[in-house]
Amino acid sequence: MSVQESRQPAASKDDWERALLGLDFPIARDALIRHAETHGGVDHEVFEVMSRLRHDEYESEDDLVAEIRELYLDSGLSASALPL
Questions:
Q1: Looking at residue 40, what is its pLDDT?
Q2: Cα–Cα distances in angstroms (integers) from residue 23 to residues 3, 9, 37, 63, in the given order
Q3: What is the mean pLDDT of residues 61-68?
Q4: Sequence-ordered alpha helix ranges (H) in the chain
Q5: The domain containing residue 10 runs over which residues?
Q6: Is residue 84 part of a domain?
Q7: Which of 53, 62, 65 is nearest to 28 (CA)?
Q8: Inter-residue contact 69 to 35 (CB < 8 Å)
Q9: Phi, psi of 57, rounded to the nearest 5 degrees
Q10: What does the pLDDT look like over 27-53, one tens digit per residue?
């Protein structure tokens, strides 16, 4: 098994669901981070990934999730291990 295949994210699917629950789109990156901070129980990795988001605003949840997935893949996480 390669290192890439064995690496697992710290944030769970539940962490990401809590972080994204109740968002209204379009939404600014800063508003996303504030929203996640006010919804307790979110893993530190969620904030780390959100801080690396490349766009200032997201038109839809699909757009946001696509970029989050790209960031995980760029960090070496395998597609089968993605938490969302």
A1: 56
A2: 35, 23, 13, 13
A3: 97
A4: 3-6, 13-20, 29-38, 44-51, 61-74
A5: 3-79
A6: no
A7: 53
A8: no
A9: -150, 150
A10: 999 999 888 877 755 678 888 899 899
